Amino acid sequence: MTTATLDRREAPRTRARPNKRPTPLRTIAWHGLMVLVCVVSIYPLLWMARSSVVPETEIFSSPSVIPSSIDLSNYPAGWVANPPGFGQFMLNSLIICVGAVLGNLIACTLAAYAFARLRFPLKGLWFTVMLGTMMLPGHVTLIPQYALFSAVDWVGTYLPLIVPKFLATDAFFIFLLIQFMRGIPRELDEAAEIDGAGRWRTFRSVMLPLTVPALATTAVFTFIWTYEDFLGPLIYLSDLNDYPVPLGLRMFVNAMGNSSYGQLFAMSLLSLLPVFITFLLFQRKLIQGIATTGLKG
After folding, report:
1. Which of 116, 124, 119, 126 has its CA nearest to residue 186?
2. What confidence tens digit (pLDDT) does each residue in 107-125 have?
3. Is 228 in contact with 93 (CB distance < 8 Å)?
4. pLDDT on residue 112
5. Mean pLDDT for each consecutive 10-residue tract of the chain (297 residues)?
6. DSSP letter (8 states) at residue 83
7. Mutual orientation of helices 212-227 and 171-182 as an angle, nearest 10°?
């Protein structure tokens, strides 16, 4: 038996796998399913847009998204329907959201940097406690928080909605930033220390510029969640002039039956614009932050 024959027998037998291409029928079925899912997902938004431009009597008369007649009076009427007006509600939401975003960006970033880079006593214990707060339902701390804020005379102001953000109370964003910072090479910190940079300058000049995608993710999600929060303002705010958008929309629905659904849908559509614009402006950084945070450990 020759050497060539032995080599052929000992060589692993690998067969080229045929390149399976999707059949046209399967491709059509898959795209059809995706179109159906998109239609089902976007139908409520289209129906709300249609309901905002039809007379009040036609809103619930048909499930169609095509209006039989167009009446734009719901928009100016809804804008001034509930004093102090929907513009004031949106301004109030903007004030709360800006404070919450700034608080989370400052406090959560500092806390994440401490867990990701610094050494301090009981670091593992505090990290476990921080993760444990993510599993604690918010309703459990609702009454103690209200009692605390009432004792310091903060009820009726925006302080209970903004100040806790400056105390790094959102463990989700701390964990997100920790995971991102752990993916940044420590050699950059060591190079900064060799150049004479202290902890604060290393954090400000090295870590912050590299964590922009994660910071954008934190800012966008904080803005959206704060903007859509209904329970917090409902508990702590009592003056109509301080109401944000969710409470302002609730005023269009009357328990006695005198509800203005046309104006409600019109203002609901307008209230989506800040969220939509925010996502468009930070879309690239948001996707980059989510993707890289998920990959880095």
Report:
1. 116
2. 999 999 999 999 999 999 9
3. no
4. 95
5. 50 55 83 91 92 89 87 92 91 96 96 93 93 87 94 96 95 93 90 90 91 91 95 94 95 79 93 91 76 52
6. T
7. 170
Distance (Å, rounded) from C-alpha 70 to C-alpha 222?
36
Q: Which domains does the chain have, with CATH numbers?
A: 21-71 (no CATH), 74-296 (1.10.3720.10)
| 84 burial via Cβ count (<10 Å: 0-12, 13-18, 19+) | middle
Can you read off the two tokens belonging to residue 203?
Answer: 């954090």
CA dihedral sign, ordered 150, 154, 156, 158: negative
Give 245's contacts (C-beta < 8 A, 6+ positions apart): 86, 89, 90, 92, 93, 227, 271
- The residue written with tokens 């940097």 in the block is 113
Alpha-carbon distance of 206 to 214, in angstroms, equals 14
Instruction: Report whether 249 contacts 264 (CB < 8 A).
Output: yes
Coil, helix or strand for 208? helix
Q: What is the pLDDT of residues 75-101, one digit of tens each?
A: 999 999 888 999 999 999 999 999 999
- Please state, in angstroms and rounded to a whole number, the distance separating the CA atoms of residues 3 and 154: 90
pLDDT at 295 (0 to 100):
46
